[in-house]
Amino acid sequence: MLARTAEPVLVPETEDERSGTVPNVVFPTAIEEVDGVRYVFYGMADAKIGVARLDRVR
Question: Which residues contact 52 (CB under 8 A, 6 or more apart)?
Fold first, then answer.
């Protein structure tokens, strides 16, 4: 099932996410599970790559 959240899960917050080739843009590119923990790899302002831990809140 596909779904959409009411609010964005990932938003630009850091300076690296706010300034770059395309400022104020973050975009997830992959989710990987490592030792039972999920990580989101994402582009930051189209200039760098970031990673964030994905915790599911129920």
Answer: 10, 39, 40, 42
State the pTM of this model: 0.81
pLDDT tens for residues 34-52? 999 999 999 999 999 999 9
- pLDDT tens digits for range 13-32: 999 999 999 999 999 999 99
